[in-house]
Amino acid sequence: MFGMNKKVVRYLVFGVLICLVLFLILHKWSIPTSLNEHRNEPPETLELSTEDKVESQSQINERLIRPLKGASFSPVITQFLKGQGKAPPEPRIQMLAASLVNKRDTLLTFKEQEMVRDCVRTASVDRSRSTPKFFGGKTQEIRRTHHTYLNENSLLMEIGGNWGWDAGNFSKLYNPRYIILEPLQEYVNILEKKFENKTNVNIYNLGLGARNETIMVNMEGNNACATSKFSGKRGNVPIHIIEAKSFMTGLGVGTFDVDLLTMNCEGCEFEALENLLSFNIIEKFKNIQWGTHSLLKGMKDPIGRYCRITALLSRTHRPTYQYKFNWESWRRKDIV
């Protein structure tokens, strides 16, 4: 009898341990099944009154008009459409582009959930392996030299122009039609000076994100190159951000394709991609390249979000180079 009781106790203990292990695994690997879950909380910023919010929208509108230099539409988009043999854009192109946008189903399938679990599980190893590979030697130049499909008739959008290092290289290599977004006025001044004689470059003093907003940031890093909404610190420098989808349809994206969208904006890549992936407009970008700023202190769940973004992006695009959690570029699947 005593021996039987010992056996029962062992089974009970074993069963409890199994349940505990399963609970821990499921808790650790539980993942949001939609982009709507675990969104970033608004960063700690100076609160804007209703009056300030109206002023914020006014500032955004002003920054949308300024690069037009008196024209009714973006000169760069006009040049691009002309090069494609299309008629010059009219104001109705914006309404048409907006009317073509539809919400996408961002609920992850079981297969995609498994992809995310695997991605999260191997994240630490993947990052530790890819970081020295990408930043060692001249490998990181791939983010500019990789895009040999670009030419003077191509349309390139860069989010996070900084002081123009990438833009200068892209222009020298391919001379495409070029649209740059940069939220810091200090850098915009440098960019405008750098490209003052380039009629195929438009510079917008805006950031890209999930919503229209004005936030206060600190100037950080060498020459403010690491300034980020997600630093986790209060700041005193205002930057104006526009919702990604709205900016794109405002340019007419949806009625035409963009050859390359490249993003290096200290964390805004997450919000911008999540926003674009929520709509069918994501299919209008032939190539998407971004830097993954997954170590920012103010970024909520960067690993999980990165893994969900790549799972959803894999529906329409495939990677052409990938240094996980550092830099990568994806191409639409219908393009060889």
Automatic annotation (TrEMBL):
The keyword Nucleus does not apply. The keyword Transmembrane helix applies. This is Methyltransferase FkbM domain-containing protein. SUPFAM superfamilies: S-adenosyl-L-methionine-dependent methyltransferases. Coiled coil: none annotated. NCBIfam families: fkbM_fam (TIGR01444). It comes from the Eukaryota. Keywords: Membrane, Transmembrane, Transmembrane helix. The chain crosses the membrane at residues 12-31.
